[in-house]
Write a structure and sequence with these properties.
Length: 195
Amino acid sequence: PLGKAIGNALEVMEAVETLRGAGPADLRELCLALGALLLVLSKVVQTEAEGRSRLEQLLGSGAGLTKLQEMVKAQKGNPQALEDWSLLPQAQKVVMVRSPLSGYVQEIKAEEMGLASALLGAGRETKDSVVDLAVGIVLNKKVGDPVEAGEPLAFLHVNHPGRLEIVQQKVQSAFQLAREPVPVPPLIYGIVGIN
């Protein structure tokens, strides 16, 4: 999974933290790479390096967060929620999912994480399902990270514990561990259809 957060309010918090310069490194890097490419394609800049530099300056100045606040306000949302997390939906409890083994995170099955978060209520099982904006999963480990048995792999943000045991098992099994260190795969393998 990109970043660490899975679930509506959790992802909003992560996006805002990224605009503040404190979000997950992989999310920040992908945003800068894609943003630089978009600036080139829209002929705002000549090169990706120039686009990246411009975006880094905007992030550093706080202009990105200011623009998001303006967009939230224009859509009749509360821009203060981007400063005060208590104004966003909050789960009733947070449950730790521990690693059963020591090793290194070799893979995290993103689809399984998505299904697990849907079981918590963060997604729809049917078109009539109501999405719980507060629930979801926050990863504590990423591919390549070392992990000790009993150490937290992820934290579940839960409102309805009825499926908690199933979700814990699903999240735990989504983490594939190796005995030896594993390389972190590239974030971007290639770009298709630019020319």
